[in-house]
Amino acid sequence: MKPKNIKKLGNIVSTAADIIHIGAHKGQEAWIYEKFGQHNVFWIEAIPEIYEQLKENLKEYPKQFAINELVTDKVNKKYKFYLSNNNLESSSIFDFSNEWWKKKSVYHKNSIILKSNTLDNIYKKYNMDKYYIDLLIIDVQGAELLVLKGADEILSKINWIYTEYSVMPVYKDGVMWPELKKHLNEKGFYNTKEPTRKHGNILFERK
User: Fold this and answer.
1) Cα 155 to chain center, whole Å?
2) Do the Cβ atoms of 205 and 181 come closer than 8 Å?
3) What percent of the chain has a predicted confidence (pLDDT) above 90?
4) Could you read off the pLDDT of 160-181 as tens digits, one per residue?
């Protein structure tokens, strides 16, 4: 988490109860969640080796939990998962799409096969219904819409969604801003501002 974004994320999580964070990586924001409120946080990470590091990093946070699942809109579907060279931070089920990544010297070095699950299934599997989850954070490199399509039950319970977006094709077949916004509007969530960057994060609130 870049320093300029800490206060922004802190303001968001300080008003929330419990949190699901999909695309956990190593749990870099764990200390922010701890600092801005005593939240229960469910971190979901797809890559097995990163998941092991995530578990280790969360040991000092007893109310934060690591889960190893690839989240899409399908159950037990096999996906080719591309692994990026930037500490796996830009890894995705989608390949890179344009010059955006070349300028950053980021590329996919290899891939693995992973099976998917839906967020609604994961919610039941890990007994999350015992918690008051009202904030969903999604950072899944172009697969945001797939996560949302498999999360109807979760969406009926939460109040905020903080998600990555793109107004240009950053990932091949990754969701674009208009489609993402349309889907969330139809589910009763509305963006709190308009995008100001080609690729970034934005907060949706239930109205």
Assistant:
1) 14
2) no
3) 79
4) 999 999 999 999 999 999 999 9
Q: How far apart are CA 2 and CA 8, in angstroms?
A: 11
Q: Which domains does the chain have, with CATH numbers?
A: 3-75+118-206 (3.40.50.150)
Residue among 128, 143, 179, 137 at smallest CA distance from 160:
137
**Three-state secondary structure readout of the chain:** CCHHHHHHHHHHHHCCCEEEEECCCCCCCHHHHHHCCCCCEEEEECCHHHHHHHHHHCCCCCCEEEEECEECCCCCCEEEEEEECCCCCCCECCCECCHHHHCCCCCEEEEEEEEEECHHHHHHHCCHHHCCEEEEEECCCCCHHHHHHCCHHHHCCCCEEEEEEECCCCECCCCCHHHHHHHHHHCCEEECCCCCCCEEEEEEEEC
Ranking 30-39, 50-59, 101-110, 120-129 by mean pLDDT, the lowest is 30-39
65-121 tens-digit pLDDT:
999 999 999 999 999 999 999 999 999 999 998 777 887 889 999 999 999 999 999
The pTM assigned to this predicted structure is 0.92
- φ/ψ of 83, rounded to 5, equals -105, 125
> HSE (CB half, 13 Å, CA atoms) of 160?
21
Residue 180 near residue 145, CB atoms below 8 Å: yes
26: tokens are 């190593």
Residue 77 and residue 90 in contact, taking contact as beta carbons nearer than 8 Å: no
